[in-house]
Each structure stands twice: as C-alpha cells, then as structure tokens.
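Exercise 3.2. Students should predict the tertiary structure of the chain below and write it as structure tokens, then compare their answer with the key that follows.

Predict this chain's 3D structure.
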Amino acid sequence: LLAKTLAGVVVGIVLGAIVRATDPTPRAIELVGFPGELFMRLLRALVLPLIVVSMVCGVCSLAKGSEGSARRVATRLLAAYAITSLVACALGLLVVSVARPGDGVSFDANGCAGAGATNGTVAGAATSDDDHAADAHRGALDAILGTARAAVTPNVVAAAADGNILGVIVASLAFGASLAAVGEDVARPIVDVFFSMNVVVQTMIAWALTLMPVGVLSLVAGRVAATCDAGAVLVALGKYVATVTFALAAHGGGVLPGLYALATRGMGVTRGGGEKRRAPALGCAFAIDSSSATLPVTLRCAKTLGIPTDLAEFALPLGATINMNGTALYEALTVIFIAQLHGVKLGIGTTIVIALTSTIAAVGAAAIPSAGLVTMLIVLQAAGLEEFSGDIGILMSVDWFLDRLRTVVNVEGDLFVASAV
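Answer key:
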C-alpha cells in the first residue's frame, strides 16, 4: 500500500503539471481532484467514530491494569506533547533568525494572479511599542480562551458536527474515565459494546485504505493543476521554503530522535528507531496531508513498533489533535519571516509570546490540510503584526507542499512520544 501510494504521488504530480500546462478551467481542475475529494470525505467520515471508540477503549484498557496507570500515562503524554511542541517552536525561531529568509524579499511580482491585492495594507505601516504589547497580550489571551472553549464544549453533538475534535476527545476521555470509575458489573455491557464497535470501525477503515493510491493521485494532481506560476512563486519564496524545509527536517530527523533517546536513556531502540516501521504512516501523512485522516495507518504502525494497543488507542488520537510539532514550528517561523519581510524588529518578550501562542494555536488547529494558515492569524495578532495578514494569501501558493512536510513531522512526533511513554 505504501509503494502504491507513493507511486500515486509521483503520477499525481506529473498529471497535475500536464493539466496545468493546458491552462485548465476551474471545472476541469475540480474534476481532476474530485475522486480525491470523495476519498477525503470518506476518511473524515470515519475519523470521528474512530476517535470516540478508540479513546474510550484506550482509557478503559489502561485503567483496567491499575487505578493510577491511566493518570500516569496521561500526565506523561501531555508533558511530552508540550515539551516537543515548545522545542519545535524554539528550533523554528532559531533557524529563521539565523537564515533570515525575509531579508531582501518582495511579494510585489510573485507570479500569482491577484496576489498584489492581498498585500495592499503593508506599505509604510508602523506600530508603537505600546500597541505591540497590547495586541500581543490580547492575541495570546484570545488563543488560550479559544482553546479552552473548544475543549469544554456545551454540546458534544454540535462539536462533532462542527469538526471540534478537541471537544469530542475531552468528552470521550471523560466518558471512558467514568466507565473505568464505576463498578465492573455496571460498566461491562457498555464496554463490550465499545470494544465491538472498535473492531467494526477498524474493518471499515481497512476497506477505505484500499482506495488510498487512487485518492492520493487525484488530490495531488488537483493541487498541482490549481497552482499558479510555480516557477515565479519559488523564486520569490525559495529561501523561505528552504528554511521551513530545513527546520522541519532538523526537528524530525534530529530533535525528536534525540529527545526520545534522552527520555528512554537509550532503551527501546526497536520502538524509537523503527524508521521502516514508521514509514507507512509518514508516507500517508505526506500524501493525504491530514494527521487525523492518517490516524488509521498511524495506529497500524504503532502495533509494528511494539506499542501496546491500549496505549496507542489512547495516545495517538490525542496526539493527532494536540501534538502539532510541525505546525507549531511552522507558525513561529513564518511569523518571524513576515516580520523580517517588512523590517519589523521584535523584542525578546514578543518572541516568547510568539512561541507560546504558536504552541497554543497549533493545539487549536484542526488536523486537516492547511489549518495552520488559519490559526496563524492568532499568532500574528499576538505579535502585533495583524496588519500584515495579507501575506498569508501569498504563502498559500506554496502551502500545499509545506503543509505536507509539517503533517509528516506531526505524525512522527505522535509515534515518538507514544514509543517513549
């Protein structure tokens, strides 16, 4: 399946380039990507039942061994997720400060139709230090409050309908913990139903994954066909793309394995060092560009890595929602890039606010393609750079590629954390 999926990526790029060369109409581009759209709709339809069932089963399984087991695991998971995300932010800030990809770059002629209009508010803008501080405080506070509201939803059904996965996960955790807390005689019938549903959902997912090569081919072809003048975009954004790619590669290839070795003191080499065992999940993450949609494959890879099923079913759905290493790194790096682009100098305090807000915003981002661009508005506001938000429209021209790279890092971080725990 991995080989077929990667072949679908290659064929999709070639097909998309051919279609792009014919100057296609919007309807033609829509038809090219339509099979992929149906595939994504199928996966997203399965994500919600997968998360609810697996989280409840995971909590019940962990609690069955000892009363403190689930609590210890949850504490370690949350701590590891927070640490890896903050380290990713710090790495992104370091790399962008050294490489300075925003110096000498102009978006005035980047080859994208209508891009100049998106950047019309940036000329000659200036903001006082007091305004920056007020905006930073308000943006960070808004990010915290927004994430808390998403987590504590007043209506679980509405949260599920609105795609508020964080609220669904919190509700599922509470329900699983309640089942584990009541007597076994009371909980047993309900627990049996959830474990049976888990088997049924996994079967449905196995059927859906057989369609992945065709779906991925269509998705990639549609995105490439819809891209504006790729050459001109890469000339304008080449250094930025290279900086983001290097930072993500450094985190995924060096920082995460290093943190894993430090956390386990060199133990569990098979689980942490199983590059081949992680490859299907990472390849799927790059291909379909969604950590939630990749979750079925991630769970399979966790089994081959030797991670206990109950732990995997608890940690990985949680990680797919709140452990966004790649997204946090990308948002922090990109906000500094935008500041460099317009010659805005940021102090240490504002930089710290950017790191913290990027981590919080990444938690609140939906695990779907390009969600990081939406939550980046929160970070820009926190940094007092909201007036330059028009630049995000230009960055979207290369985000179809960069988002795939950060999704790979997101999924890799989930597997490393679960392996370490």
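Discussion points: Confidence is low (pLDDT under 50) at residues 109-137. The chain has one domain: 1-108+136-420.
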